[in-house]
Amino acid sequence: MKITVLYYTKIGHTKEMAEIVAAGARQVAGVEAAVFPMEAPDVQWLTASDCVLLGTPTYMADLAGVVKCWLETAGHKYPLAGKLGGAFATAHFSHGGGDIAIQSILHHLLVAGMVVYSGGDSLGQPVIHLGPVALSEDLEQYQSLFATYGQRMAEKAVALFGES
Ligand SMILES: Cc1cc2nc3c(=O)[nH]c(=O)nc-3n(C[C@H](O)[C@H](O)[C@H](O)COP(=O)(O)O)c2cc1C
């Protein structure tokens, strides 16, 4: 089972958290997770993936424009339909719109025909409603949350699609 974690970053925070999401996913038996910048995904790997996770910095209390542009064409460029999808964000402020950035991505994933999931509050602590948000001043504090998110998404992908 392959998983693709895509990110856009300018300063590096979102890439750092994308690597942690992928490490969490790899905790699940049979899962191989690879991380790519959104601008240059490995198309073969992405095509073969059953789960695609997207990370964005929060810009103007929403997703970054580059990510929106990617999403506007991705559904036609890549076979996203039917894959499991989710999103995570980094932000500077707790009230800065990280959740809104994630929600915007989830809308796009639905439009692309993806199966959207986060685990919500059904899996207990840590509760992850839409997807995890890390505040850039203290990324380390969010490592375990992001790894748990990656693991939960991978577990759901394996439950839906099997290990191979
Ligand atoms: C143009 C711009 C707009 C931003 N707008 C917000 C915002 O509305 N809310 C917020 O919490 N942080 C905002 N930030 C901070 C970034 O979301 C934050 O630093 C993020 O971790 C950067 O991600 P990166 O290191 O992957 O580029 C903004 C940063 C930039 C450059």
Distance between the termini: 5 Å
For this structure, what is the CATH class? Alpha Beta
Which fold name is given in CATH as the topology? Rossmann fold
Count of distinct strands: 7
List low-confidence stretches: none
Task: Give the fraction of residues assigned to helices.
Answer: 25-40%
Largest sheet: 7 strands, mixed
What is the molecular shape? globular
Radius of gyration (CA) equals 14 Å
Kindly estimate the percentage of residues that lie in beta strands according to DSSP: 15-25%
Question: What's the average pLDDT?
Answer: 97
Q: What's the architecture, going by CATH?
A: 3-Layer(aba) Sandwich
**Helix count, per DSSP?**
5
Give the domain tally: 1
Q: Can you identify the CATH superfamily?
A: Flavodoxin domain
- SSE pattern, N- to C-terminal: EHEHEEHEHEEH
Category from helices, strands and their pairing: alpha/beta
Would you mind describing this structure in some detail?
By secondary structure, the chain is α/β, with parallel strands linked by helices. It has a single domain, classed as Flavodoxin domain (Rossmann fold, 3-Layer(aba) Sandwich). Helices cover 40% and strands 23% of the residues. It contains five helices and seven strands. Strands 1, 2, 3, 4, 5, 6 and 7 form a seven-stranded mixed sheet that branches. Strand 5, helix 4 (98-111) and strand 6 (115-116) form a beta-alpha-beta unit. The longest helix has 19 residues, at 143-161. The mean pLDDT is 97. It binds flavin mononucleotide. Residues 9-14, 57-61, 90-93, 96-97, 136 line the site of flavin mononucleotide. Flavin mononucleotide (FMN) binds at residues 9-14, 57-61, 90-93, 96-97, 136. InterPro entries: Flavodoxin/NO_synth, Flavodoxin_CS, Flavoprotein-like_sf, FMN_Rdtase-like_dom. It comes from Enterococcus diestrammenae.
